[in-house]
Amino acid sequence: MLREEEIALRDVTSAGIAVSDRISRDVAANLDLEEALEASRYASHPYTTHPKEWPPLVEVVDNRELPSILIERYNAAGGEGTALCGIFPEIRRAWASVDNSVFLWRFDKWDAQCYEYNGEEQAICAVGLAKCKPGVFLEAIQYLLVLATPVELVLVGVCCSGRPDGTDPYAEVALQPLPEYVVSSDGVTATSVTCTDKGRIFFSGRDGHIYELLYTTGSTWHKRCRKVCLTAGLGSAISRWVIPDVFRFAAVDPIVEMVVDDERYLLYTRTEEMKLQVFELGFNGDGPLKKVAEEKNLINQKDTNFGSRQSTGTRVPNRSAKASIVCMAPLSSLESKWLHLVVILSDGRRMYFSTGSSSVSGGSLAGLGGLSNRHKPSCLKLVSTRPSPPLGGSGGLGFGSVSLATRSQNEDLALKVETAYNSAGTLIISDSSPPTVSSLLVIRKDYSAQASPPGSLGTSLRGSRALRETLSSLPLEGRMLFVADVLPLPDTASTVQSLYSELALYGIGSSSESCEKAAVKLWSRGDLSIQHILPRRRVVVFSTIGMMELIFNRPVDILRILFQSNSPRSLLEEFFVRFGAGEAAGMCLMLASKMIDAENLVGNAVAERAAEAFEDPRLVGMPQLEGSSALSNTRTAAGGFSMGQVVQEAEPVFSGAYEGLCLCAARLLFPVWELPVMVNKVDSDSSDPNSSNGVVVCRLPVRAMQVLETKIRSLEIFLRSRKNQRRGLYGYVAGLGDVTGSILYGSTDLGSGGNSMIRNLFGAYSRNLQIADDGAPNKRQRLPYAPAELAAMEVRAMECVRQLLLRSSEALFLLHLLCQHHVTRLVQGFDANLRQALTQMTFHQLVCSEEGDKLATRLISTLMEYYTGPDSSGTVNDLSARLREGCPSFYKESDHKFYLAVEYLDRAALSSDPEEKDGLAREAFNFLSRVPESADLHAVCKRFEDLRFYEAVVRLPLQKAQVLDPTGDAFNEQIDAGIRERMLAQREQCYEIVAGALRRLKGDSSSQREFGSPVQHKAAASSVLDFSSRKKYTRQIIQLAVQSPDRLFHEYIYRTMINLGLDNELLEYGGTDLVPFLQTAVHGPRDEAVSEMMPSAPSLGVLPSSDQIRYLDLLARYYVLKRQHYLAAHVLLKLAERRFVDGRNTPSLEERCQYLSNAVLQAKNASNVKDVVSSAGDDNHDSGLLDLLEGKLAVAQFQLKIKEQLEVMASKLKASDGTSESGQSEDHSRRQEKSNLVGTISEKIKLLSSDLMSITQLYNEYAVPFELWEICLEMLYFASYSGDADSSIVRETWARLIDQALTRGGIAEACSVLKRVGSHVYPGDGDVLPLETLCLHLEKAAMSRLASGVELVGDEDVARALLAACKGAVEPVLNTYNQLLSNGAILTSPLLRLRLLRSVLTVLREWSMSVVAQKMGTSAVGASLIIGGVFSPEQTTMMNQGVRDKITSAANRYMTEVRRLPLPQSQTEAVYRGFRELEESLLSPFSFERFTYQ
Question: Contact, 625 vs 783, CB < 8 A?
């Protein structure tokens, strides 16, 4: 069992940075094919050859003859029948047709079975294999064999089954006739059949059209099988149906080949006349066929890349014979994002096409490489042309150049390609050019041309990016007919697809593509990056002689064969030179650790030789300083020293061994490194992939994680074994361990024997590090690092990578273990935040970060809880054994002790005896108290909380806080701020556990469960606390918390209680430091009690935070509770007047008014109840505070009214603006003016809401500019304004108010305003309510509007409004009318005087009724009813005689005034009669029944 101290997270993090960098460089080295072709324009030699002394790149594994029954049937037909052939790699079968028979047999091995199907009468002209659509046939039918004859098209079911032991998934194939799935060809002869991965079947006819074969279950009125023409209209379809083919004389260009691009959902076709067409199959491949573009003049187009400049050494092909198209194949997005189709010509050239219209020059690819492949096809454009390979295969070729020495100049130098096959970056062509025999040419990318040894400058960037290809030649008997890849086994393909499917660079496979086909695409990325995970590639060549199986050796296979054959050292050195020391060392690691997929397991001898090569400094080099070979560059050519040149500090460059180790680690971890370990799997109907309604599952399947873990562990085990054996530089130095102290964090110091150790290990090879300049051995340049130090630095870096590998393998083991226990079930109790953190956690973070370690601990906790729960029979020891063996760095020994303590809690939860429950909880608490640093407090304290054992809930977090901060750095303000903040954060994490318990007792449903809290236990679910119990336990927690001497803990708990609304509990049970805590939060660290008692002590310019505001409110409540009303009033005043610069948490104006109202109430209480603080002052101070607060409240209420008025004004303007826009009744300038006004008003409203303002500011900046005259009058009345002697401002304001009301609603609105405002300012100074001005203004307006017919105004409206303004006082109103009637200069109009007299009559009647009502104890309305009836003598005597005399005298006087008016009697009679009847009713007790209102 490994020691848990073996892995240091700091080392793992450091190695993770190196691996991330290596992954980034590896990804950047994968060029897009278009970019490589563009760079090839400047390369002189596009083709290279494989060294003859090396093992071959391509080997013939087996040659198999064709089935005898097939040969006999073909010979029986005399060679004149219809014969077709091909390969179905999906079912591992080759096929051939002879007339009406189809033969199927295994192509990868001979099993003596050749299935014959001859259910058709006509000769078969086209064959295809389609994936079966789901839900149509039985599940046993997986594929459909499509057979086309001149008269019909037939579907045949294909059933595949494997061996019972699972060793051969393609063992048995059976054909099932489907007689109901036959459709007539309607005279159309099929030329080719192709199928998509989604099961769509297309076939082309000799009529030049494309058809689709549709099939269903037949449950509707449609036929079970029918064909549809996709490239012709209705007229053309009728013509083909009516007129047979023999009567059509127009030239037809039939389609001879169709290929489908299942990744981009495109269909390519070519015709006999070499016309290319591209069709779109819809966004998801199931839409209608749509023609995008076609290209007719294909061969005549100028070579894009090599048309203007031919490569040196390549031949100019003989163009006397026009080249033809031999083959076309789609390119996967792994090969190129912008090149979509390659066409192989008969002369060996390759033409690359794109269906995108945007420019795809090499310089633009850097920013476009990450775009989606789901582009919109718009054209078919030739982008690049690759020249044909040289003749003669590899016989006359040298590395890096092309030799034509074996060919005479008069011979035809053009290739004659009969058949070609292009797939995943490999091209196979059959060459029959004379005088050579037919041969197979295999063209693949040359990966050695891209490698360069570490530290070397290499070739130019453009040359290194150019596409170089190796050419291999094999003899071929007969003619090549068909070529296909041997698909990987389903288990291997599934593993590869699951690892690489979600990577942006390696995104392989669509939703409907099989994993075997998806894995084949990965080969296009090159052997170097995938040779550790994919087996050797195999292809099958179908020729006229038989089947030939080829296998492609990867670079690691070539190295393995070199080791096996005991090849000379020169070949091994050449291998390291061509591939680079780092790349070759990485392959040595693969062989030494036996991690590669090989048909034959790597033997121990090969593994040992690979390990020795990995440790050989003559092959992998030694760590050195960057540019050490040029250390003497500062010297001049004459040997002098240049003082003007800046000498840069040299950086260490590690050897190829370290580079190889980083390469292996990076390529192993690349599929999982930056991807999340868990994903949230949602329903297909959900539009949000991050929806919390989904289920969390592990992203990788179990088999993929097992394969990856096995490979990583094998590499780590090899490194650990070399370390234990002290083999090589790494093993020797790392094996010293703590002796040198140089491996992990200490300074590098190997002592005086360091250089001797290096010489003993590597001999004289290390001498070149001692001398800087061979020409001057006695003038050594001083180096920043000695050779021994460089060696120790490299070993330290390699040790970090080894620890990273070990940590990664343990993480995979943990994920594998979690999947075995169903991750979805384990995380179903996690809250939304934890689920999001889990689904966002990458493998890199899980391995290298503290957050990942915490999350792994949380997952282990959940796993342990589930494994040892009441529904499971497992124990802690069972699961702990597996965890300590598989992932000891994630599950330490202290964790084991912790989970043993959890078992006590489980037993306590299941116990029904309260004493036993409490005893078990006490035992668990005592045990955990000894190891508080290792306890997962979030989980364990929740268990204690469920058991209502709150002593542990409070004390365990405090103990862990003390362990985390033993020296009390969180309290020390003199230390570094970063250290103090870190310690404080750790302490607060512990405090939060206690706070969480308070939250749950409070029943705060809005608070989320804390990180790491487990699922609610059954015991807790069954015990629902009542209110009294909650209060009891809350008091217990607070009392336990107060007992702690931790001041920071007190502050944290106080803040938590405030946030939870536990204000009453805090004030009741809080400690002695509660008041200083609140005072410090409000006023800062100063403690000046006197400053709190003075209104000016807390400056209003101070900007308290939102938390401080809450504490202000709580402090006010505290003062109220303690009956310190004076201090409470001051705090409330500060709450009302607080302001913020950023505008956040700004109280509303209504809240400010409420604060002021409460402050007034407290000030009144302070004046009545002499508290301790206020009694120290005088009574005048108390009354002054009350007056101040009442004044501020009144001004705030004015401000609130102004705000409300402006809001109404803005809404009306917006409504009118919308109406004017719809009716177009206002011009643009008017609408713009309204818009500006609305903006101004909105800004003013915002300012009013932000802060309290003075009455002067409100009057001058808001009320007057916006003509809020009613509020202006209230302000003047409140301020007792006396600024002018004649009160002109007041009179002018009243006049504006009345005019404003008249404009809005006429006399009725004006009278309403007068009643409302006048009653508010009456009684008061006569200057505030100028009755004469108001009366005259309103009477004139009433008479004018009545005369003009604008408004129907009553005779009593103005008089009653004046009476209401004076609160029913008649004499001020009557005196006002008397003064106006006595001034003839003002009332020059008789009609106006008559109207005033009518109003006087109304006033006198109201006076009389009010007197009666006062005496009778009823209202004026009741008195009017009585007066309208009959007065009894007793009622008459009730009226005051003096008032009656005044009314009678006034009525008599005004009768005389009426008679004096120079108006016709008809106009004055009614007024005169009214005065007379009023007089008579007052004089005669029996005449009240005649009293009526006129």
Answer: yes
State how far the alpha carbon of 192 is from the alpha carbons of 149, 850, 1119, in Å: 11, 60, 94
Q: Is 251 exposed, middle or buried (0-12, 13-18, 19+ CB in 10 A)?
A: exposed
The secondary structure of 610-627 as a DSSP string is HHHHHT-HHHH---EETT
Q: Which two tokens stand for residue 489?
A: 């086994």
Identify the band that residue 308 occupies on the pLDDT scale cut at 50, 70 and 90.
very low
State the Cα–Cα distance between residues 155 and 147, nearest whole angstrom: 6
Nearest CA to 492 out of 542, 554, 538 is that of 538
Residue 229's identity, in one-letter code, is C
In which order are the strands placed within the sheet that holds 325-330?
Answer: 325-330, 341-345, 350-354, 381-386
The gap between the terminal CA atoms of the chain, to the nearest Å, is 115
Contact yes or no for 623/586 (Cβ under 8 A)? no
Give the bridge partners for 104, in sequence order: 95, 115
Residue 1249 neighbours by CB distance under 10 Å: 16
Read off the pLDDT band of 321 (50, 70, 90): low
List the beta strands (DSSP E) in 1033-1176.
none
User: So what's the pLDDT on residue 635?
Assistant: 38
DSSP string, 1326-1359: TTTS-HHHHHHHHHHHHHHHHHHTSS---TTHHH
Please write the tens of the pLDDT for every residue from 190-240. Answer: 999 999 988 899 999 998 899 999 988 876 556 788 889 988 764 455 555
Q: What is the pLDDT of residues 1219-1255, one digit of tens each?
A: 655 445 556 777 788 888 888 888 888 888 888 888 8
Classify 1409 in phi/psi space as left (phi over 0), alpha (psi -120 to 50) or beta: alpha
Give the 3-state secondary structure of residue 403: coil
Cα–Cα distance between 278 and 201 in angstroms, integer?
17
CB of 1216 closer than 8 Å to CB of 1234: yes
pLDDT recorded at residue 258 = 93
CA dist 124 → 119, 153, 192 (Å): 11, 9, 11
Q: What is the dihedral of CA 1259, 1261, 1262, 1267, to 10 degrees?
A: 80
Scanning the structure block, which residue is given the tokens 């290739």? 415
Please, what is the average pLDDT of the chain? 77
Max Cα-Cα span within the chain: 155
The strand pairing partners of 445, in sequence order, are 469
What residues contact residue 1237 under an 8 Å CB cut-off, 6+ apart?
1213
φ/ψ (deg, to 5) at 1126: -65, -45
Tell me if 650 sits within 8 A of 626, measured CB to CB: yes
Residue 1007 has pLDDT above 50, yes or no: no
The average pLDDT across 604-617 equals 90
Residue 24: Cβ within 10 Å count: 12
Over the stretch 24-75, which tens digit does the pLDDT of each residue have? 988 888 888 888 888 888 776 788 888 888 999 999 988 888 888 888 888 8
| Spatial distance between the Cα atoms of 450 and 465, rounded to a whole number of angstroms | 8
**pLDDT tens by residue, 390-420:** 875 543 333 343 433 334 444 456 788 889 9
Tokens of 13: 């993090």
Kindly give, in sequence order, each residue whose CB lies less than 8 Å from that of residue 254, ignoring residues fewer than 6 positions away: 191, 204, 205, 206, 207, 208, 271, 272
pLDDT for 709: 92
Task: Write the CB contacts of 1173 (distance below 8 Å, at least 6 apart in sequence).
Answer: 1093, 1124, 1126, 1127
Of 822, 825, 895, give the one whose Cα is nearest residue 853: 895
129-135, Cβ contacts within 8 angstroms, sequence gap of 24 or more: 129/88, 129/90, 129/91, 129/158, 129/195, 130/195, 130/199, 130/200, 130/201, 131/90, 131/195, 131/197, 131/198, 131/199, 131/512, 131/514, 132/157, 132/199, 133/198, 133/199, 133/215, 135/217
Closest listed residue to residue 348, CA positions, set 304, 297, 392: 392
